[in-house]
Amino acid sequence: MRKEHWEILKKAAAGVPVPGTPTAFIVDSPWIPGYLGISTIDYIGSPQIWLQANLEVLRRFPDAIMLPGFWVEPGMAAEPSGYGCRISFAEDSPPSVHPVIGDIAEADRLSPPDPRKEGLMPLVLSWYRHALGRVRDAGMDIRIVAARGPLALAAHILGVTEFLVGLKTEPEKTHAFLAMTTRTVKDWLEAQAEVLPGAAGIMVLDDVTGFLSREDYLEFAYPYMKDIFSMPVELKILHNDTDNPASYEFLADLGVGIFNFTHLRTISEVRSLTGPRVCLMGNVPPLDLLVNAGPDACGEAARACIRDNGGAPGFILSAGGGVSPGTRGENIAALIQAARS
Questions:
Q1: Over the stretch 229-257, which tens digit does the pLDDT of each residue have?
Q2: Which of 119, 142, 170, 195 could be bridged to 82 by S-S, CB 3.0 to 4.6 A?
C-alpha cells in the first residue's frame, strides 16, 4: 500500500474530508488469479507468482486502494488449518475448508493453535517476512493485517449449520468455543504484525455475525468482536456483506472505523443505522453489475452511490462486498473514473 493511500484510509475512517471520492476494493485469491489468467494453486503456492500478481494489479489500477494490500490469503484456510481442518485445493477457485468436528460438544477436545507453528499460518508468516523487502523496494508497505472473525472461524471448524444449531442448544459450550476462536483471531493478527513492523491496521471478515438476530448478536457476537476491535491499532476495518442490519447500530461502539457492507442496503440507510462515526465502504453490486454488466452500468451505479452518500466525508466507493470472481477490469476502472469525475 502506498503511503498516500494509507493516509486517505485513516482520514476517511476519522471522518476527515479528503479530495474527491476515494475508491478501495477487497481483493484476494477468489479474484486475482482468474483476472490475471493464472492458476489459483500457483498463486497460493508460489511466493514469486503471488508477488508479481499483486504488483500487476496495483500497476493496472494505481488510483485504487487494494485492501488489505499484499494479502497472503490461501482462501479462508489459514486459521481453520491450525485446528486440523482438511483443505482441498483447485486450479480455478480458492481452497475449500472441511469441518473437523460435527457437533458443538466435540469442541471441548480442541485447543487454540499457535499461529507461529501450526497449520498454514507459519507459511503465511514466512511469505510476509520474505516479501516485505520487495514490497518496500517498490515504494510501498504492508499496513493492514487480516483475519476471519471468531464466528466465521467457528463455522469453518464446525460447519455453519451445526454452529448455528449449537448456538441455540448449547449456549455455554458455544461461549467457550467462541472464546477460543477469538483468542485465535487475536493471536493470528498479532503474529502477522510481528513480522510486518509497518502494520498499524486490522481487517476482520465475519459474515456469520449477519446470520444472527439482534438478541443473539448481542450475546454471542458483540463481546467477542469487541475484544478483537479493542486491539490498539490505528485503523479497524470490518467486512460483513450479509443482508442483516441487526449489528449496524453497535459498530461505532465496537470501534469499527471502516465498514464494508452489502449492496442490498442503501448507503443512506446504513448510515442512519451506524451513525456518522463509521466510514462506509460500498456498495456497487458485485455480481449483478461488476461481474455481469458493462462499464456504463457500473459507472452509473457508482455515481448513484456517490449521490446517495450526500457528500458525507466518511465514504469510500467500492463493491458491496469483496471483489467477486469474474469481475472485469474495465468495470473496476469505471468505478475509479466515476469517483474521479
A1: 999 999 999 999 999 999 999 999 999 99
A2: 119
Cell of 304: 448513484
Residues 128-169 pLDDT 10s: 999 999 999 999 999 999 999 999 999 999 999 999 999 999
Nearest to 211 by CA among 178, 167, 170: 167
Burial of 152 (0-12, 13-18, 19+ CB in 10 A): buried
Range of the domain at 290: 3-340
Report the largest interatomic distance among the alpha carbons of the chain, rounded to a whole angstrom.
Answer: 56
Amino acid at 19: P
The CATH number linked to 180 is 3.20.20.210
CB 62 within 8 A of CB 23: no
Measured distance CA(251)–CA(274) in Å, rounded: 6
Instruction: Yes or no: say if 228 and 287 are a contact pair by the CB < 8 Å rule.
Output: no
Our count of domains for the chain comes to 1
Which three three-digit cell numbers place residue 228? Answer: 478483537
pTM of the model: 0.98
Please state the length of the chain: 341
